[in-house]
Amino acid sequence: MKFNNPLYEEEELAYEDVFLYQKYFEWTSRFGDINIKPELDFGTSIPIVSANMNAVTGKRMSEALARIWWLGILPQDMDIETMTRIIKEIKNSSIKFDTPITVKLNNTVRDALGIIFKRSHHAVILVDDENRPINIFTPKNFNDVDQYTQLWNLKKSFLITWNEDITDEEAFDIMDKKWISSLPIINKTWVLLGILTKKQTVRNSIYSQTLDNNWKLDLWVALGVNNFLEKAKALVELWINVFVLDTAHWYQKKMIEAIKLFRKELWSWPILIAWNVITAEWTRDIINAWANWVKVWVGPWAMCTTRMKTWVWRPQFSAVYKCSIEAKKLGWFVWADGWIKNPRDLVLALAAWANHVMIGTLFTWTYESTWDIKFDENLRMYKENYWMASRKAVWLRNADLSNFEQAKKALFKEWISTSKIYIKEGREWVGDIVDEFITGLRSAMTYVWAYDLPNFHEKALIWVQTHAWFFEGTPHWGVK
Question: Which residues are catalytic?
Fold first, then answer.
């Protein structure tokens, strides 16, 4: 990447301050044979991961992302028992079919409505005691039905299922022909294995899965910097090979020592990612302490008040660019985190030599994020989101302490506690965001005429724009 005017290289620039310049294009296809795999992939084929936030990444998010080439990072606040259970469940999940939501004969409509929005397929499957499907319900089947009606009383037409050997195109054609939105998948003894939707079959034909060495769905794990070794050693036994050491301010003695301790006890095999940094100096010292990657971020986030409270910060585009240059000198890369709202932000972060981009708040408004769906007074669906240093996060992290100790901890919180994140049409499922962002990235690469990400890094030409230029490029005059 280079600037059209070298003088701008020393400016402090946000994503909205810059844009990519178009170049000559020769391919006959708009997307051509474009490879979007990161330079250092460690199992991923798309340069995006989900944030290790309590309100974002859990079992559902990790499963969904691993099935479409991305990866989720479980948050460090999970206790080892919960984390172990979730990892084992993910590893035992189907790599192709979505996880079904099941109910039994004596469950009620109220029971079904309480869980039906936990998955984007919006279906609950009635099963017997041997987990064999009897019926399938979607929200419309419960219209004008008393919520305490037991599900065995609801009558539907003949249930359509299929075996696990079905191809994606065959499944799509069956659902299209039968006018059904979901297709339960069974094994040879009629036991329920999973569920497919039409959109999922199409994505299965485009994306592959992110798998570990045992051909199971993969995920990564975040660790706190205090007393992390016992948890890390236990998780290595569960085939976790990438760890995150997470704290707000990495450039301090305690954090450098944490990296060295991790390496002393676990050697060089697990990949270690440390954060957060915003300067070349911080990046160099952390990598020299033997971290593989660093994450670039101080406060550019939807709910973080760090910048407003401390005034310690740096515009994110310049931070990613400067840290990336230093990381590349040492043979490694950075992750860009924060202020990723649209595909253009992803494009600019990758142009600035980031190897991966982390997304947090944007994923909160999907069915796969951790919290349950709620409804406001207008029956609009939303989820709660909260920052990792908020009052709620501090309380959850220290729930086992005495009331007095919790009160002491509460003095050191940031005051943005929760916000409502509404489910938006077209971005309900995390796969919808995958499609939008990857399409934008591929299209940007054609404008630059880059065939892979290293080539994109080399060819990207950055220009600086005014606020008026930025506004000119957005939908306006009532267009949404």
Answer: 304
∠ CA(269), CA(273), CA(276), 5° rounding? 160
Q: If you average pLDDT over residues 475-479, what whole number do you get?
A: 65
Which strand (E) or helix (H) includes residue 192? strand 192-197
Could you please report the per-residue DSSP string of 351-382?
HTT-SEEEE-HHHHTSTTSSSPPEE-TT--EE
Find all residues with CB under 8 Å of 466, minimum gap 6, and list them: none
Q: What tokens were used for 198?
A: 């039409």
Strands 381-385 vs 419-422: parallel, antiparallel or unpaired = antiparallel
- pLDDT computed for residue 439 by the predictor: 92
Give residue limits of the domains in the chain: 2-71+280-367+425-472, 101-206
pTM for the full model?
0.87
Rounded CA gap, 428 and 118, in Å?
11
Q: Please, what CATH class does the domain formed by 101-206 belong to? A: alpha beta
Token code pair at residue 113: 């409505």
Q: Largest Cα–Cα distance of the chain, in whole Å?
A: 73
The percentage of the chain sitting over the pLDDT mark of 70, rounded to a whole number, equals 89
Looking at residue 72, its amino acid is G
Per-residue CA distances from 181 to 138, 467, 470 (Å): 9, 44, 40
- CATH code for 2-71+280-367+425-472? 3.20.20.70
Question: Beta-carbon neighbour count of residue 81 at 10 Å?
Answer: 8
Burial class (CB in 10 A: 0-12, 13-18, 19+), 448: buried
User: What are the structure tokens assigned to 194, written together?
Assistant: 């999973």
Neighbour count for residue 121 (Cβ, 10 Å):
25
Residue 82 Rama label (left phi>0; alpha psi -120 to 50; beta): alpha
Banded model confidence at residue 307, pLDDT cuts 50, 70, 90? low
CA 441 to CA 165: how far, in whole Å?
33
DSSP secondary structure string, 392-430?
A: HHHHHHTTTS-HHHHHHHHTT-BS---EEEE--TT-SSH
Per-residue pLDDT of 366-376, as tens digits, reads 999 998 888 88
CB 140 within 8 Å of CB 116: no
